[in-house]
TrEMBL record:
Pfam families from the UniProt entry: GFO_IDH_MocA
Protein name according to UniProt: Gfo/Idh/MocA-like oxidoreductase N-terminal domain-containing protein
Species name: Leuconostoc inhae
Domain of life: Bacteria
GO molecular function annotations of the record: nucleotide binding
InterPro entries according to UniProt: Gfo/Idh/MocA-like_OxRdtase_N (IPR000683), NAD(P)-bd_dom_sf (IPR036291)
Gfo/Idh/MocA-like oxidoreductase N-terminal domain span: 2-109
Species lineage: Bacteria, Bacillati, Bacillota, Bacilli, Lactobacillales
Amino acid sequence: MIKFGVIGTNWITKMFIAAAIETGEYELSKIYSRTQERGESFLRTLTVDDVDIVTTLSDLYTGIDLVYIASPNSLHFEQSKVAIEAGVHVIVEKPTTSNPAEFSEIEKLLTLYPEVRYFEAARHVHQPNFKVIQQTMGELTQLQGATLVYQKYSSRYDAYLAGEEPNVLSRNFSAGALYDLGVYPIYAAIALFGAPRAVQYLPILLTNGADGKGTASLFYDDFNVTLLFGKTANSYLSSEIYGLKETIAISNIAELDTITYHDGDGHADNIGQKTDDNPMIHEAQDFADIINDPVENHTKYNQWFQLAKQVNQTLFDLRSSADIEFLADKKEY
Ligand SMILES: NC(=O)c1ccc[n+]([C@@H]2O[C@H](COP(=O)([O-])OP(=O)(O)OC[C@H]3O[C@@H](n4cnc5c(N)ncnc54)[C@H](OP(=O)(O)O)[C@@H]3O)[C@@H](O)[C@H]2O)c1
C-alpha cells in the first residue's frame, strides 16, 4: 500500500482521495491544511479512518510515501521541492510549476533523489478514451490539424466581478485561463502532436492583468492547432482533429465523454464512451504502477515526465507571447 498525504482541502482533493482508494493501491495517512479546523472539517466529509491532520510540511512529509498536491499553482514548486528532499513521491496538480525555471530546479533536484517519482496530475491523458483518440489518429490519411476547446464559466469569475481576486484568476498565484483550463487542450495537443515549433496566444485580459479567456495557436510544420479556452463564458463546441476527409470529434477535451469518428463518406461512429464516475482513477492507477514497479515502468515514467516538461515550456511560451507575467517569474533560483 502506498501511504499518502494530501495538500489542499477543496473538492478536487476529495475526488483524488476517492480515486486513489478505489484503486486499492493507496492508503490515506495525512491531511495538510493551513489550519487544524479546516483540516478537521475536510476530514469529516470523507469516509476514512486513522488519518492525521497536520499544519506543517515537515509533519506531513514524515512517514508517508507520496503526497498529492492540490494547492494554488504558485505553491506547487516549493511544496514539491520540500517533498522530494524528504524522499516523498509527488503527484502535483496541473500545472506542475509556474515556469520552466522552476521546472528545471525540480528536474535537477530529482537527479539527487533518483528513487523519487514526480507526476503531473493531467487526468484526461490517462483515461481510456485518450488512448482511443491516439489509436484512431493512426487511421487519418493526412493530419490537417485540430481545434481543441475547453471553456467553462467559473463561479470564481462571479467572485472576481464582485470585487475579489480569487486565486485561480490571479497572476500572484500563477493562474488565469491559460494556466487553468488551457492546460487540458494544451496537454492533449502535445501528447497527440508533439511540441510545436512556434506558438501565439491572444488573451482577453481582466483588469488585474490575468487572462479570463483566449485563443491560442500552436504551429507545426504541416498544420496548425487552434485552442479556445476560458473561464468567463461557456462553450458547447466539440473539439475536432482533422484528417483529409475524416474527423475525430471529442465532446469535451477534459472529460472525453464521447469520441465520434466521421469517416471520409460522412458516416459517424461512436468509438468511445466514458463509463467511469471518477475520472482520476486512471491516473491514480498509472502512478501506482510506476511506484510499485519503477524498473519495469521506467520508460512510461520518463515519457510522462518529458510530456509534463514540454507542456510547462509551451504554457510559458504562450504566456510570454502575450506578455503575461507572474509574480513567480521574479524569483531567482
Ligand atoms: N485535475 C482537475 O480536474 C483539477 C480540478 C480543479 C483544480 N485543479 C488544480 O488543483 C489545484 C488547486 O485548485 P483549487 O481551485 O482547489 O485551488 P484553491 O481552492 O484556491 O486552493 C486549494 C487549497 O489550497 C489552500 N489554499 C488556498 N489559498 C491558499 C493560500 N493563499 N496559501 C496557501 N494555501 C492556500 C486551501 O487549503 P487550506 O485552507 O486547507 O490550507 C485550499 O483548499 C490547482 O493547481 C488546480 O489547477 C485540478
